[in-house]
Design goal:
The protein is of the alpha/beta class. It contains 10 helices and 18 strands.
């Protein structure tokens, strides 16, 4: 099969012919229909996430068709469309797994990082970690739901059920999905972009944001929760400045530059800062139910499989409106 291989950090992906994966007992052999390009992929290429298997097939927003099942795989039928997300396997026996925090499992394996992913024509995935996808989304449109949507939704939930004014910093793939869910839930969304990026600010307003401006600006009202999707540590402090008493700042990224020192008065009055790590299968099922109920429009730009390097560069430089998706 064709695959885009990362052979070493900080090098371009190579178009390669590799062996078709053979599914093990609980795995599915999946024919990839679409695979999203995520900022996490850039962190892996840039060695900011420094423990990948190499050579590696990146990609963890996989929409695919089941073409073969392992001997004990019975959850999905051959021919069924499924999604394979970032969380690819956990031991199900550690203290985290046993208390419903499998996203923190020390032995966890991750699609497109420690397991080969979806920048390829086929991929093998454990059926227990695959998800059913709402039929109303096309393949390319469904791909961003599998990370931008899932991690974005977990970040949004950690903002708190009582948060009425939601700030979103970094208005990319995750943000444009979460904003629509928040608006549908009756929340007021305030969008923060790179200073001067009026096109993305207009995009945020079209999705229902009541205000949009640069990340160097303060919103017209203090925020109850701020969700950070750009990997810039300074934004955590900027968001604290914009947050009301009792508010929370949540980082949805797997990697971020260092957070600079800040005065305690910004954190005082019971403000909180926290992070999101990975996702659970329960997150996946809950979010897919939300995606079935809420009319989410995923804005996507499609690329051929051998254009993966170009897609990543466009994402790196903020030139993708919404999400980039590879179509093998």
């Amino acid at each position: 099969m064709r695959a885009m291989l990362l052979r070493a950090a900080r090098t371009p992906l190579e178009t390669s012919e590799v062996d078709l994966p053979a599914p093990t007992e609980r795995q599915l052999l999946l024919q990839v229909r679409a695979c999203g390009v995520c900022r996490t992929d850039l962190h892996i290429v840039d060695a900011e996430l420094d423990r990948p298997k190499l050579p590696l097939v990146l990609g963890h927003e996989i929409v695919a068709t089941v073409v073969e099942r392992g001997a004990a795989a019975r959850q999905f039928e051959v021919g069924e469309r499924v999604g394979a997300p970032w969380l690819g396997w956990t031991d199900q026996t550690c203290r985290y797994c046993l208390r419903g925090q499998e996203n923190l499992c020390d032995a966890a394996l991750f699609t497109g990082y420690t397991l080969d992913g979806g920048y390829a024509e086929y991929v093998a995935a454990d059926e227990r970690y695959c998800l059913r996808l709402p039929a109303k989304y096309g393949d390319a449109e469904a791909a961003p739901l599998l990370c931008a949507g899932l991690i974005g939704y977990r970040t949004y939930r950690l903002g708190g059920e009582s948060a009425e004014r939601i700030g979103i910093y970094g208005f990319g793939a995750a943000a444009h999905i979460v904003a629509q869910v928040a608006v549908h839930d009756g929340r007021r969304v305030f969008a923060f972009t790179r200073p001067g990026d009026t096109a993305t600010q207009d995009f945020a307003r079209r999705l229902g944001a009541v205000w949009a401006g640069g990340s160097d600006a303060l919103p017209p009202e203090p925020l109850d929760a701020a969700l950070i999707f750009a990997p810039v540590g300074e934004l955590m402090v900027a968001a604290l400045r914009a947050t009301a008493k009792g508010g929370v700042v949540v980082s949805g990224g797997i990697h971020m530059s260092d957070i600079p020192a800040f005065a305690y008065r910004l954190l005082w009055e019971e403000r909180a800062m926290r992070s999101v790590a990975n996702l659970t299968r329960q997150d996946g099922m809950e979010f897919m139910a939300v995606a079935e109920r809420v009319p989410i429009h995923t804005s996507v730009e499609s690329f051929a499989l051998d254009e993966a390097n170009q897609a990543q560069e466009r994402l790196r430089h903020g030139q993708v409106r919404g999400a980039a998706v590879l179509i093998p």
